[in-house]
């Protein structure tokens, strides 16, 4: 899970504000195209929960309420996230993200910067947390360890390891240097064409661990 650092109330599109402040309006009345576009821009076109690629269309991306929707919060821009469809249409045992979460409240939030420390990834691509409650939310409420997600994260880790190995080979002592790792990390932290790489936080976490081990 990646912190949505760019999220601001001021990012709410003007036409959404106009409809939101119209007496008697509800979430279903809000213009979804500009709302979805604003959320995707903040998130770098990755799902707020699983971090796989999502696009600016209604068949690939849905708008989710982090705190379960009610009359008080349904139009609150800061409670809205862009998420994937979570394997909708496939087997129930493959559901994840909002499709599995539904109206279940959770404590882990991509709106809080500490989510990047609370959600970790093992060498096999599994998401986990040292906090028992969040561990439950990741696996049982959000389904972030569905096998296809674990496989994609494992593939990304293999890519990162290969990048590091190739860079190390170019050094005289055939060892990776901290400056090289910082450059690789910076590349992963930077949007390309307004988009983050899918599952980018997995790369951040792995590279940061490598940096921490170097003198």
Detailed description of the structure:
The longest helix is centred in the C-terminal third of the chain and has 23 residues, at 147-169. This protein is mainly alpha-helical and 215 residues long. The two termini are 28 Å apart. It is built from 8 helices and 4 strands, in the order ααββααββαααα. The protein is globular. The strands form 2 sheets. Strands 1-2 form a two-stranded antiparallel sheet. Strands 3-4 form a two-stranded antiparallel ribbon. The model has no long low-confidence stretch (mean pLDDT 95). The protein folds into 2 domains: 9-145, no CATH class; 148-213, no CATH class.
Concise structural overview:
This protein has 215 residues and is mainly α.
Keywords:
8 helices, mainly alpha, 2 domains, single chain, 215 residues, two-stranded antiparallel ribbon, 4 strands, globular
Write the layout of secondary structure elements.
Elements: H1 14-20, H2 32-43, E1 62-65, E2 80-83, H3 98-101, H4 115-118, E3 120-121, E4 127-128, H5 132-141, H6 147-169, H7 178-189, H8 200-213
Antiparallel strand pairs: 1-2, 3-4
Helix pairs in contact: 6-8, 7-8
């Amino acid at each position: 899970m990646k912190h949505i650092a760019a999220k601001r109330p001021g990012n709410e599109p003007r036409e959404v504000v106009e409809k939101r402040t119209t007496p008697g309006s509800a979430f279903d009345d809000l213009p979804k195209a500009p709302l979805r576009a604003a959320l995707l821009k903040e998130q770098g076109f990755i799902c707020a929960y699983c971090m796989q690629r999502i696009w600016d269309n209604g068949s690939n991306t849905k708008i989710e309420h982090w705190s379960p929707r009610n009359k008080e919060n349904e139009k609150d821009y800061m409670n809205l996230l862009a998420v994937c469809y979570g394997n909708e249409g496939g087997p129930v045992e493959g559901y994840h993200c909002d499709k599995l979460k539904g109206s279940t409240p959770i404590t882990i939030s991509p709106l809080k910067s500490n989510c990047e420390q609370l959600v970790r990834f093992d060498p096999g691509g599994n998401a986990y947390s040292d906090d028992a409650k969040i561990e439950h939310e990741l696996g049982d409420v959000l389904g972030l360890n569905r096998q296809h997600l674990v496989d994609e994260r494992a593939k990304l880790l293999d890519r990162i390891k290969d990048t590091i190995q190739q860079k190390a080979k170019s050094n005289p002592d055939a060892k990776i240097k901290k400056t090289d790792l910082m450059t690789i990390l910076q590349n992963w932290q930077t949007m390309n064409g307004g988009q983050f790489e899918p599952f980018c936080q997995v790369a951040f976490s792995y590279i940061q661990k490598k940096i921490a081990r170097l003198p």
